Amino acid sequence: MAIGTVATRYAKSLLDLAKEQGLTDVLYADMKFLQKTLAANRQLNVVLKNPIVRAEKKNAIVKLVFGSRLNPITMSFLSIIARKNREPIVDAIADEYIAQYDHMKGISHATVITTMTLSDTLRQKFKSMVSQATGNTTIELEEKIDPKLIGGYILRIGDRQIDGSLRSQLNEMRLEFLN
Prior knowledge:
The protein is an alpha+beta fold and 179 residues long. It is elongated and about 65 Å long. It has two domains: 3-103, Orthogonal Bundle (Peroxidase, domain 1); 108-178, no CATH class. The protein has eight helices and four strands; from the N terminus they run H-H-H-H-H-H-E-H-E-E-E-H. It has a four-stranded mixed sheet with strand order 2-1-3-4. The longest helix has 19 residues, at 3-21. The chain has helices at residues 3-21, 24-40, 42-49, 55-66, 72-83, 90-105, 120-134, 166-178; strands at 107-114, 138-145, 153-157, 160-163.
């Protein structure tokens, strides 16, 4: 079975359990912490993905690293993952849980790339653009600065991209002149 499918099933099970227990926000914070820790610590990620390391050893490492920082339900869930030899996809499960939680809460994520820091007015305009495109009212906007754009912006919403940069417009004009 594909990693995405398995991760989706585990994440859905965890989200269903969190709903029953009234802990969706707590487990969301745990998954964000787990995701951040695995992204920042390459060695931990390599150990969890290594098929040579025994499941008991991986479980002991997970308990040592996360035991005091995560909710007991999250720790039990990680223990189940270890027993099922699914430690290599724990990062995918965390990503999928976060995506399902965001979908459940109506949260959209977008990235805007500009040449300068956004003013509050521009930030609100981008948020309203994302809101219109997705239909969600809660928008988390990640801002990046890229001086190579010359001017304008690039807005990414999921797998869609709106390119309003001067660099893009200049490239289009160059192609028109060449044709």
